[in-house]
Design goal:
This protein is an alpha+beta fold. It has 2 helices and 8 strands. β2 and β3 form a beta hairpin.
Amino acid sequence: MEMAEKIPSEPDAGNAAEGISRSLLPVISILALKNIIMKLVVNNEVKIFSESSLNLLQLLKQLGIDRKKGIAVSVNNDVIARNQWEYIVLKENDKILIITASQGG
């Protein structure tokens, strides 16, 4: 499972389609309808994945942060406990927020 393409978006993207070039929208829509790809909003960036079915743990593995300590994850504003990541199946246009704790003073 690989990330197909990263498409930048506006920092406050309320709609997942805002960060995608208008010329790509018809192609992405057709592929999404045929369950070939999935569009997610991760930390306000639209990302396109080559899988049509993906759980939260798989997403975090693709992003290289599944084993990182000190992170909190929410899906559509619901905080998800680490022991539940593999059971949360993501859907088209889900909004995932990943926060990393850091030390400082």
